[in-house]
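Write out this protein's structure.
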Amino acid sequence: MKNHLITICIFLSLCLHSQQLIPLNEKAYSDSLKNVVNSKTDNQSKATSYFLLSSFYRNTDSLVSKNYLQKANALILKNPLNQAKYHYYEGQYFLERNKEKAALSFQKAIQEFSKIKTKEADFYIASSWYNYGVTQKNKEGYPFLVKILVEKSIPQVEKYKNHKTLGQLYSQLAIILTYNAEFEKAFEYNTKSIKLLEKNAPHSPELFFAYLNTASNFCYQAKGDEAKKFLDKAEKLIQPYPESSSNASFYYGKTLYFITKQKNEEALPMIEKGLIYAKKSNQNLLTQMFYLNKYDILRKQNKLNEAKKVLEDILSEKTLIIDANNRKAFYNQLSSLNEQMGNLPEALLWEKKYSKLSDSLNAENVKLELNKLETKFRTAEKQKEIANLNAEKAEKELEINKKNQYLWIFGFATLFLIILMIFIYFYTKKLAKQKEINHNQKLKEIAQQEELKITKAILEGEEKERERVGKDLHDGLGGMLAGVKINFSAWASQNLETKSKENFNEILNKLDNSVSELRNISRNLMPESLLKFGLETALKDLCEFYTRKDLYIDFQAIDINPELPLAIQINIFRIVQEILANAVKHAEAENILLQCSQSNDIFMITIEDDGKGFDEDSYSKTKSMGLHNLQTRVDYLKGKMEINSDHEGTSINIELNTHAIS
């Protein structure tokens, strides 16, 4: 169990990320949620299912998770409970990606849920506090997380004594106690957790992980036989679900058990089975934990080259060495391993890295201690200074009390006049400044109104010119070309022989293609479907126009008002047309998701593709004419646009005000 000095810390980090647990029967769970969102049920049920689906996919497919979160957001409207839930599940989405954003989301969720006095809100508050503590663990340390658990989360749900959330929180507290070698206290909380869950949630994932946590607690005490009792109970729960990703955690528990019993040959197959599940469900930290135990076993078996390769791979993957103490332990292992293999120069190299990092950590600890001592010293000095000032103040007060009463009156009168003059000065200055601000604001509003009029005139003129050119092309030049084709066909039938007709027919086909291309241009200039059937139909036709064999466009329309003014419909259509044209032309994508939704006066456009993306810095410095026109139309509708792009694709979110030009 030598490597447990490293793994117990990592084990804690691993378990602390499982607050939002997924049922062991994952497929049935996800299928049931998808059935709800695909059925004709109410928006409240759909929103809840979208939230749960977002949480289900948050570690395995971030794009799908984000998509479900956005779909839930579109159904929130003004429901306070759903608004609070959105912040909570947004925090879940960011928990492993950006802890600062996650912390902000959980704090917002706590504020919103605190306004709702229901049992469901209480459970979300408890979970939000706990997850907030997890986001702050690296900054504040484990004592802060324990404080959150015992002062915020557990008291919030202790009034619901039979609920599984309370059992899970007990189990989480037990994990932290295990990490701090408080094994007996950890066992007490694990026992409380298991007793509650066996009675009220006998087939839950919370009970499954409580069994595994208890087994791990006994393994770290080298009590393998006690650990096996709880592993067997966990196995009964997970056995009916061979496809569940939770099997990875079960096989890790079995690995610890066999290592505890010094049955390394039996531990290796458990590691290989666990790796299959961990890799399949993208559990990177658990994957590296398996490799770490594999290294320990290979070294004990004197398979030093294989052991070295495993340890170097762990270092290369970097998941475990983010923590400096773990990195120091790995350097020490590589140094001793190379020394054992006779690679003395390499052993010396790793020893130097170990010593340098150890000195750095020690220096940091010394620095922290010095800062603490300096703070105490400064506090003592300030207290002395305050005491001296208080003494001087007392002496001066005695002297002042001896002065003539007229001097007091004169002093107060002078002070009053000074204060009055200062007040008049600053009030006058503030008043002048406020007038200047109001004047500048009026000038700015006038400039904006003039700019809006100019933009409106330009866009309306552009649309009228598009409509005129489109009609001229379709009715004028299109009709002329069609007539030419008919006359050519009639002339050919009377004057050309069969052999000559073949070449002539090729020319007619090219003329036919030219007529079709002309009609496409005319339709793009002013689509008839927009004028006849409205915005939603026009957008659907636009997506079908751009769809190819190698490109699928998923168009989703949510609550689009068919009574929108035509000018706004045209601008929205042009915005979507420009975005789709850019995506088709430059992104090299295979799938594009276009979602258009409306909530009161706000119209939202979201488009995501899985293409090659582009450099956002280069976009912000030099915008193309198309993107410039796009920004102009967004500004015209008093909207805002956000563009995010990387090598996995591009997402664009636009929010428009449909009252901007009404």
